Amino acid sequence: MNALVALCHFCELHGPRTLFCTEAVHPPSPSPPQPGPVIPGDRDREVDREGEGLTMRANSSATQRADMCEGCRSLPASHPGFVSVDSETGIRYLSHQHPRQQQLFSVVRQACVRSLSCEVCPGREGPIFFGDEQHGFVFSHTFFIKDSLARGFQRWYSIVVVAMDRIYLINSWPFLLRHLRLTIQSLQNTALKVFDSEQCVCPQRAVRMNSAFSPAVFPHQRSGNAARSLTSLTQHPNLWASLHSSFSWLLKACGSRLTEKLLEGAPTEDTLVLIERQTEQEEEMSGWDGAEGGGSNPQPSQSESVQAKDFQFDDGRQEDLLGPKFKSLRHLRQVLGASDFRQLAWHVLMGNQVIWRGADPGLIQSAFNVLKALLPVGCVRAVPYSPHYEEAYRCNFLGLSPDVPIPAHVSSSEFSMLVDVLNVERGCVNPVSDDDILSLYQFNISSANTQPTDKGPTLLNKIDVALSNENLSVEVVSLCLLCLKEEWMNKVKVLFKFSKVDGRGKEDTQKVLALLGATGPGEEDNVRLLKFWMTGLSKLYKSHLMTAVRATDMEA
Description:
Layout: E1 3-11, E2 15-25, H1 42-50, H2 52-55, H3 62-66, E3 82-85, E4 92-96, H4 102-115, E5 126-132, E6 136-146, E7 154-163, H5 166-171, H6 173-201, H7 204-210, H8 218-225, H9 230-234, H10 239-257, H11 269-293, H12 302-315, H13 329-336, H14 338-350, E8 353-357, H15 361-371, E9 382-386, E10 397-400, H16 408-411, E11 416-423, E12 441-446, H17 458-468, H18 474-501, H19 506-516, H20 523-534, H21 539-555
Parallel strand pairs: 8-10, 8-11, 9-10
Antiparallel strand pairs: 1-2, 1-7, 2-4, 3-4, 5-6, 6-7, 11-12
Helix pairs in contact: 6-10, 6-11, 13-14, 17-18, 18-19, 18-20
Pfam families: Folliculin, Folliculin_C
Subcellular location: Cell projection, Cilium; Cytoplasm, Cytoskeleton, Microtubule organizing center, Centrosome; Cytoplasm, Cytoskeleton, Spindle; Cytoplasm, Cytosol
Main location: other
């Protein structure tokens, strides 16, 4: 992450000061040697530049060093600072009291002054965002540290994250807020213990009330109490090394959580839904952290737990699963057989609840991982493995342990399908590989649905043709499926705009279905599929259509 993290302090004698700063130094990109004569001294200057990050000067002038009290200083000028190297990327994370470059020093200095003076949130404690294109953008979190000798028994600090990329910093707000609060709470809790122990030995409130006050003595009293360092307030012997580790991890993690991806054209509905889910999850976690800071510890509801599992399920990687697993839709079709697979895929596309029950959670989750490729991301609600039954409105993919009973109203419903995974009893024979699933398991498929699945929907017919064509590789089939889903999602958007937003009648809707190619053989299944896939549209797309319609009505 091209950013810089700094800890700032408002000194009662010298005003806002930077205490500790961590920056990321990227390795120089190799450049081809330029032909020409070698100038004496160039090699020496290169060596100086390479060692500049390891020597890290605190202040360049003796005047600045002299104008610092104990509370303004973190590391002495002779201290080499702290260096951490990321072995994967070669990025070095350097920490000292001030940045190495003069330009960064000015930027951080201005961010420090603004965070502890004019740019303050209500209550003086909490996060705030400010900045401009010239001096960079700043995420600042101000907070108090207890001090028994300070005015008001507390001192004012802030942690600032400075970056030139405004969008990136705003998108990282929930992440930065959550992890900076952990660091701040750790500092406050440690300082509070020291404060309580000092108050027990010598209560300062009583001392101040009993001492005589005079204008002549007051400046000397203030100057004697104003120079306490953060190390003294927390009694933490390795405070700066610990902050270096925290800030370095923050820069690395924040830089790796968001990556740029080249998109051809507008983002797909799946991309929009994934962004919305990630944003919602980060906001929920930030809300829980804030509530915990306020003294309460809310427990997520059952539906929130299911949504969290669903998000983890979407992020699960197939190669992380141990034991036998399904590798692709074609592999699943080969194991189940063409007829049973078509029946299973039909239930998935129609939005019915698909239940897998067995003793191998890895195998069941691998089946869900390949089956979810049939649906838009917004239509996938999964509980990979549960010790009890979950209702269909909570999830359309449900994995159960073998001893979990299926309720009668579910087993008799035509809107559900059960796949029982039974272990095959084998005698003393040669061990089989994990790929040979049929030698390890037997699959019993049952459903109360009596509707034939051989006519439609049209999307299922095209998928069946692609999977049965052995000349197409698994990668080609995946791309073919992606194109088919985009084609039908565009039909869903047209139908949603026509029927839900514009409110057209049944006759007009039938004409649109014919125009979309959803009529004819399997028409009932096509319409049912389109209506189910409407639930997978992103909130952004729906709100955009609604806003456009309201604006048109107001103009009319």
